[in-house]
Prior knowledge:
Layout: E1 16-18, E2 24-26, E3 30-31, H1 40-53, E4 57-59, H2 67-79, E5 88-93, H3 100-114, E6 119-124, H4 150-165, E7 169-175, H5 179-188, E8 195-199, H6 207-215, E9 219-223, H7 247-256, H8 260-271, E10 274-275, H9 282-291, H10 299-306
Parallel strand pairs: 3-4, 4-5, 5-6, 6-7, 7-8, 8-9, 9-10
Antiparallel strand pairs: 1-2
The structure holds NADP nicotinamide-adenine-dinucleotide phosphate (NAP).
Amino acid sequence: MFRMxxxxxxxxxxxxxxxxxxxxxxxxxxxxFGSDKYGAxxxxxxxxxxxxxGYRLIDCAACYGNExxxxxxxxxxxxxxxxxxxxxxxxxxxxxxxxxxxxxxxCEKSLxxxxxxxxxxxxxxxxxxxxxxxxxxxxxRNPDSRPYIHEEFMDTWAGVEELVxxxxxxxxxxxxxxxxxxxxxxxxxxxxxxxxxxxLHPSFQQGELFQFSIDNGLQPIGYCPIGSPSRPxxxxxxxxxxxxxxxxxxxxxxxxxxHPALICLKWACQRGQVPxxxxxxxxxxxxxxxxxxxxxxxxxxxxxLRSLDRNARMIKxxxxxxxxxxxxxxxxxxxxRIPSWEG
Length: 343
Ligand SMILES: NC(=O)c1ccc[n+]([C@@H]2O[C@H](COP(=O)([O-])OP(=O)(O)OC[C@H]3O[C@@H](n4cnc5c(N)ncnc54)[C@H](OP(=O)(O)O)[C@@H]3O)[C@@H](O)[C@H]2O)c1
């Protein structure tokens, strides 16, 4: 029997987003990437508790290595009375499964592991067919890695489109793309992406990509919404900014008498992105959800937070670089061009 906890958040107060195709999604969700720190059982237990606390959006991915543990949690919830159509479950195809046939097989495996008949969102996790060994360090490189090759990406996208046609996926999407890549994808896609998952937190607001996404019918989903304090070593560098220690953000948190993490989430929802904070700790994930249902930030506070953008990307993706690439900046088309083999 599926029962909500006594201290659950009132779901009717959680913001909702309407997607370009008219379907709706919850305005906040739970992340499920354990950052090499939390195990599959702990994360499955968090999904169990989060559903009973009021979360209806869960962000999963094949590469997080825990979909087979989260599946029984979904089966129990939906078998016990939670309506499937009330939930919004995302999964993603990993970089080692690009290509028409592979993406279909990968989605079928995620569905089987998650014990679902369909996914509400299915994303191409990274636009490169490059992958790294689980738990590798930041200097690790795969010699088979390649830059973005549009024709190859569209072959993968054709697989995603086929999944939509088969009714296995309701909302297709992309992740870790740039405006130059999105322009090509939107030009050539027969079924357009409606979700765009990207790194978004106060010190990394990606204003241009955010607006381009909105203008082109893609709902931004913000990963690392509170600055991913538990991220793996390979995703840390000396010049990283710690959002939760930015003095103006701390000041606003004091005024609202909440942890700075909650200010990041209020800001995210009020700006219009869908944050997907991760936590396995019940007090944390409950307070994260509750924060976006009460005590909103003022217009002045939103303006202060807007001024905190430092263009401080944390997830640089350097482990996906190909032989000959100069730096992680090559992954992000910073000069408006998509690098080829020749750079
Ligand atoms: N598409 C992609 O390429 C991509 C990339 C990265 C992440 N994601 C998705 O985005 C999700 C979120 O990103 P993330 O996990 O890296 O970063 P995050 O959500 O910004 O940070 C998660 C960490 O923040 C701390 N935290 C959470 N709630 C808190 C609270 N109320 N008070 C204080 N601390 C709190 C916890 O640290 P402690 O554990 O130390 O308590 C938690 O581990 C992932 O789980 C994954 O689903 C997607």
